[in-house]
């Protein structure tokens, strides 16, 4: 009996350790992918999209705060793959762990729902989980560079902005997609598959054309984002926005297409403006459409329930007169007597 009790006692710890290990693997893999699209701003390497922040926030929302060691370990491994760990690595790891934890606590305090079926959920993720919480990692990371002397004080704000936007884009582009994919799958009709395939083919053709063109035709991406949000809500719009942002980021790092003949600062500013606009358009518009559809379903369900209640009440109404009386026999069903 004691062995059984000991096994039950250690089971939660084992589950938490395995979940943290899985988060570590996902965080490290996302970090390596994010480093493939890095840019140099004021001599410092910056990533326009930092997917690990989205992985961390989504993991905390799905699995709880108990997986924070996985985030810390994943952050350490990413840093160790770039440079030799030192005393300053601890500060960076702590800030990269505290920022998603603060995002998780703020979102939970705001009543955030993982299905993101309300506009307030999208706004909470944008302003609390993205813009607000990521101030911690950006300020600590860039402030550490200034304190070490590897970055001049005059270069603080450009690098800080690049760092902050990169972490925020990771939350806005990656976290919603992971939350949607982890949620319950709904029914998908055959005609929706056809439309989804047509949207995918159109995206694969039109987006590279818009990004690779030297005429700066990035605005052609937004009709596709609107189409995806209207018809496929978060799953479609976030996939479309992530594909557009990743494709644009790689073109910006190579200095081709719409980013030809631009300086490093101009490339980062243009790329950040596009990624931010795409992420906000996809996320907020999809949240509005999802909330409207949920409201419509609730109203339809309430009307059906009300109709059923009225039918039951009508079936249980007493007759105008007691059965068998002269008044009952004289009165026709319409309630009028013959003259």
UniProtKB/TrEMBL annotation:
Residues 313-339 are annotated as: Disordered. Its main location: membrane. InterPro entries: MASE1 (IPR007895). It is a multi-pass membrane protein. It is found in: Cell membrane. The chain crosses the membrane at residues 16-35, 88-107, 119-141, 161-184, 196-226, 232-250. Residues 19-293 form the MASE1 domain. Pfam families: MASE1. Keywords: Cell membrane, Membrane, Transmembrane, Transmembrane helix. It comes from the Bacteria. The keyword Membrane applies. This is MASE1 domain-containing protein. It comes from Streptomyces wedmorensis.
């Amino acid at each position: 009996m004691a062995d059984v009790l000991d096994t039950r006692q250690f089971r939660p710890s084992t589950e938490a350790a395995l979940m943290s290990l899985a988060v570590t693997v996902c965080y490290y893999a996302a970090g390596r992918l994010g480093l493939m699209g890095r840019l140099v701003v004021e001599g410092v390497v910056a990533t326009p999209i930092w997917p690990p922040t989205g992985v961390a926030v989504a993991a905390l929302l799905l699995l709880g705060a108990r997986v924070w060691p996985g985030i810390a370990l994943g952050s350490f491994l990413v840093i160790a793959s770039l440079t030799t760990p030192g005393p300053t690595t601890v500060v960076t790891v702590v800030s990269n762990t505290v920022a998603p934890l603060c995002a998780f606590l703020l979102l939970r305090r705001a009543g955030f729902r993982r299905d993101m079926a309300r506009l307030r959920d999208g706004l909470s993720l944008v302003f609390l989980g993205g813009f607000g919480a990521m101030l911690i990692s950006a300020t600590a990371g860039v402030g550490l560079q200034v304190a070490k002397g590897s970055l001049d004080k005059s270069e603080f704000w450009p690098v800080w902005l690049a760092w902050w936007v990169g972490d925020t884009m990771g939350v806005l582009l990656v976290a919603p997609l992971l939350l949607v994919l982890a949620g319950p799958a709904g029914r998908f009709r055959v005609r929706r598959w056809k439309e989804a395939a047509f949207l995918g083919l159109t995206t694969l053709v039109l987006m590279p054309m818009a990004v690779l063109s030297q005429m700066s035709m990035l605005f052609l991406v937004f009709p596709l984002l609107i189409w995806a949000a209207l018809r496929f809500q978060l799953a479609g719009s976030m996939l479309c926005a992530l594909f557009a942002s990743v494709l644009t980021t790689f073109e910006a790092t190579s200095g081709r297409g719409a980013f030809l003949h631009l300086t490093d600062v101009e490339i980062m500013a243009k790329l950040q403006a596009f990624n931010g606009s795409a992420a906000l358009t996809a996320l907020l518009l999809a949240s509005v459409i999802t909330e409207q559809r949920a409201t419509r379903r609730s109203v339809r369900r309430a009307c059906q329930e009300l109709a059923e209640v009225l039918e039951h009440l009508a079936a249980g109404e007493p007759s105008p007169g007691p059965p068998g009386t002269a008044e009952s026999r004289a009165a026709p069903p319409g309630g009028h007597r013959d003259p």
